[in-house]
């Protein structure tokens, strides 16, 4: 899910927090300078405590209303100074007006008030400059988002240098595709050429790529076939607005990326506020689930070990958001040789191909046996799968942020190797402990394309309300023992 960049207040939350801290430091310094001999703690005096709170709120209102964080990372020393003075004077003027009408205002030292805003302007300016310097160093290193660049041979050097110098999105340059040429294996400005125009979408399908930037060659048309193929993978695509191309059925928005004005196309988008709400829900659910995992461990760990000596937990490499791999943990519900026996059972796979694996009765599950008379006997392994107890260790992944409470089920790397372009779209969001597929009669779905359609439906229609609805349905499914998650 792509994060919309419209809300600067949340996008630059670090600057908001620093501003609040600087204002309070300035307030304390001003008070100590003028009135420390009377009472060392300004927050113990009602009028000063209330004023500290009031000017903090006023500063936030000015920051939000006057949009004083606009282009904060792009501003030089002089422009930052101008914006800082502007912000301080606006906050001062509104605070003076409020102080005039406040009860007991005559008890408030005007010197403290004046020095507060002098210190505030100085401290805020210095802190912003230092913090931006730190962020700019981090921009050169890159971050967690992997960006694939698609451009012409003549433009490649300029595009790469532009992104490295103005990497406000903190992208890690994952590779380069040269339009019209196949230079796979070569490098330009330290960035490897990883694919050509014909197989760029296939490369995205099989590797960890979060976003794609397309800067077309000068005096040439857009590579529309390649763009359509990229859209099918579900990856977020930024197209330099030299020309405009309309992609039906996709979310599109105009943004800035380094020096380029781009048209961003994605399956769906969420505001920073919506993503924050989803993350808070994941943290609350993760903490609760981890506590429950500890309690469940005390009861099922002995049963697992007695039935099948070995580790209580099972870890496996899975493919997460946009192809990023991570380790997923479960309570072990299968015998130790389960992975080795998978190949011989593949012909019994309920799903029509190797993109997903599911059996009606899995003999690799601890305690599962087929008796001589054909009767199927189950044990502790099937019990913890039917009740979804094996899933509880995944709440740790939910807490750390590699998974979410609700999303798509994370596939195995071997399964992803069989994906077609449309299938890759299910990797466009964080994997989830539960999801729309799990609560939509998963036992009856045997066609992987139907699974993908449900995942795409969830991504295209995502909302926090939908997540809550799926979580409630999940509880009902588990209580009815409708199969493992």
Task: Show the helix and strand layout.
Layout: E1 2-3, H1 8-11, H2 13-35, H3 46-65, H4 77-101, H5 110-141, E2 145-151, H6 156-165, E3 171-178, E4 187-188, E5 191-195, H7 200-206, E6 211-215, H8 224-233, E7 236-240, E8 251-257, E9 260-266, E10 269-270, H9 272-307, E11 313-319, E12 325-331, H10 338-345, E13 369-370, E14 376-377, H11 380-386, H12 394-400, E15 404-406, H13 413-416, E16 432-434, H14 448-460, H15 464-479
Parallel strand pairs: 1-10, 2-3, 2-6, 3-5, 6-7, 15-16
Antiparallel strand pairs: 4-5, 7-9, 8-9, 11-12, 13-14
Helix pairs in contact: 2-3, 2-5, 3-4, 4-5, 7-8, 9-12
Please outline what is shown here.
By secondary structure, the protein is α/β, with parallel strands linked by helices. It contains 15 helices and 16 strands.
What would the keywords be for this entry?
15% strand, 485 residues, alpha/beta
Largest sheet: 8 strands, mixed
* % residues in beta strands: 15-25%
Low-confidence stretches: none
Strand order in space, largest sheet: 4-5-3-2-6-7-9-8
Classification by helices and strands: alpha/beta
Q: What percent of the residues sit in helical stretches (DSSP H or I)?
A: 40-55%
Tell me the distance between the termini.
23 Å
Strand elements, count:
16
DSSP helical segment count: 15
Supply Rg.
28 Å
Coarse shape = flat
Mean pLDDT: 85
């Amino acid at each position: 899910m792509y994060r919309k960049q419209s809300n600067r207040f949340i996008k630059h939350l670090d600057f908001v927090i620093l501003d609040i801290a600087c204002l309070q430091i300035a307030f304390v310094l001003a008070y100590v300078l003028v009135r420390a001999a009377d009472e060392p703690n300004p927050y113990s005096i009602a009028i000063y405590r209330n004023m500290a709170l009031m000017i903090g709120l006023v500063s936030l209102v000015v920051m939000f209303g006057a949009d004083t964080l606009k282009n904060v990372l792009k501003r030089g020393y002089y422009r930052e100074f101008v914006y800082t003075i502007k912000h301080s004077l606006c906050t001062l003027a509104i605070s003076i007006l409020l102080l005039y009408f406040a009860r007991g205002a005559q008890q408030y030292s005007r010197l403290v008030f004046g020095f507060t805003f002098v210190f505030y302007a100085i401290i805020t300016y210095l802190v912003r400059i230092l913090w931006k310097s730190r962020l700019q160093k981090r921009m050169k290193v890159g971050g967690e988002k992997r960006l694939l660049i698609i451009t012409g041979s003549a433009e490649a050097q300029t595009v790469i240098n532009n992104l490295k110098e103005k990497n406000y999105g903190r992208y890690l340059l994952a590779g380069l595709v040269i339009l019209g040429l196949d230079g796979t294996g070569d490098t330009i400005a330290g960035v490897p050429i990883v694919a050509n125009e014909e197989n760029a979408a296939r490369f995205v399908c099989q590797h960890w790529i979060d976003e794609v930037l397309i800067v077309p060659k000068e005096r040439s048309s857009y590579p529309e076939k390649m763009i359509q193929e990229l859209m099918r993978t579900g990856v977020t695509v930024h197209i330099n607005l030299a020309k405009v191309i309309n992609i039906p059925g996709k979310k599109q928005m105009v943004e800035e990326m380094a020096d380029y004005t781009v048209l961003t196309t994605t399956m769906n988008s969420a505001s920073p506020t919506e993503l924050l709400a989803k993350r808070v829900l994941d943290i609350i659910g993760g903490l609760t689930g981890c506590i429950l995992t500890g309690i469940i461990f005390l009861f099922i760990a002995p049963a697992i070990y007695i039935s099948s000596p070995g580790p209580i937990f099972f870890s496996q490499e899975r493919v997460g958001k946009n192809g990023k791999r991570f380790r997923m943990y479960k309570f072990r519900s299968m015998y130790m040789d389960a992975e080795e026996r998978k190949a011989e059972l593949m012909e019994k796979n309920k799903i029509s191909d190797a993109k997903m694996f599911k059996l009606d009765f899995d003999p690799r599950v601890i305690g599962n046996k087929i008796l001589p008379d054909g009767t199927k006997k189950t044990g502790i392994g099937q019990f913890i799968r039917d009740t979804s107890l094996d899933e509880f260790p995944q709440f740790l992944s939910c807490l750390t942020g590699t998974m979410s409470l609700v999303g798509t089920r994370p596939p195995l790397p071997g399964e992803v190797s069989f994906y077609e372009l449309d299938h890759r779209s299910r990797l466009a969001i964080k994997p989830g402990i539960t999801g729309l597929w799990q609560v939509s009669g998963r036992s009856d779905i045997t066609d992987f394309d139907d699974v993908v359609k449900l995942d795409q439906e969830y991504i295209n229609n995502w909302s926090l309300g939908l997540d809550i609805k799926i979580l409630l349905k999940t509880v009902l499914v588990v209580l009815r023992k409708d199969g493992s998650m």
